[in-house]
Specification:
Number of helices: 5
Structural class: alpha/beta
Strand order of the largest sheet: 3-2-1-4-5
Shape: elongated
Largest sheet: 5 strands, mixed
Strand content: 5-15%
Amino acid sequence: MSSIDQARKTIKALNSTYKIVHVTELATLGKLSNLREKAEAAVSYYETILKSLRWVRKTMHSGNNNVKEEKKITAIAITSERGLCGAYNSEVFAEIDQLIATLGDQVTINWVVVGEQGHRYLTRLGQNITAYLQFSLENIDLETTTAVTADFVDQINSEEIDALYVIFTKYFNAVHSEAMCEKIYPEIPEESDTLPIEVDYVLDFETEEEQVEQLLLENYLCGLLYSMFRYSVASEYCMRRIAMKQAKDNIQKQLEEAIFNARKRTLQQKTGELLDIISGAQTIRKEDE
């Protein structure tokens, strides 16, 4: 195969790859708005529950004020099933490393993992993985999240969990997301630590105070986890769109370079052929003379 034929083959391959990457970028961008809206709806829900939970803890039920030593730690790590999303997984891995370093060797972290990438990483670290939740974050619904939350609440009630952490990626906009680690149990955010809640009421219940607090806690954790799942998948698509944009720009540069080199080789070939013709003509002319 000549160098020109090889150049044409390279250009064709780059054109095909460019189209695929461009379509992937557009498809990813098209899903971001819907994913963000669902995450924000979940935030509105759990903030409403949170206000009622604060009210119950402050005015109805004093609860256990003793500070309990946190030895039984459960941490949820939310990652992606596949790559091609830039630094999305590596930033979550950095948060995992930070949590392990912060808690030290005095406690054992029981990991609950979402996403194949996180499962592989924690396995390589030799961490204790107690659950691997194999569901699609893109298609996550409240029913699935409620079942996951109920399992955590059961473990909290049976004193199998002293503290619950979540490592996820917060989506801000189409060009910005940030991996973070949040402790969601036993503490709940104070009013100064959260965004202002737009409702001016608390929910009314006619059951026992402890049962009310338990119900509110379960609903709060459910809404919070659902928003974190939604934010994470939105962030994954955000990072994948950025990665696809960078890949597209890189392919564009390679394509322009390949086209330039192909034209250069074609010109060199034609110039060489022309020089051969001129040289041959001059040789024939000398022979005739």
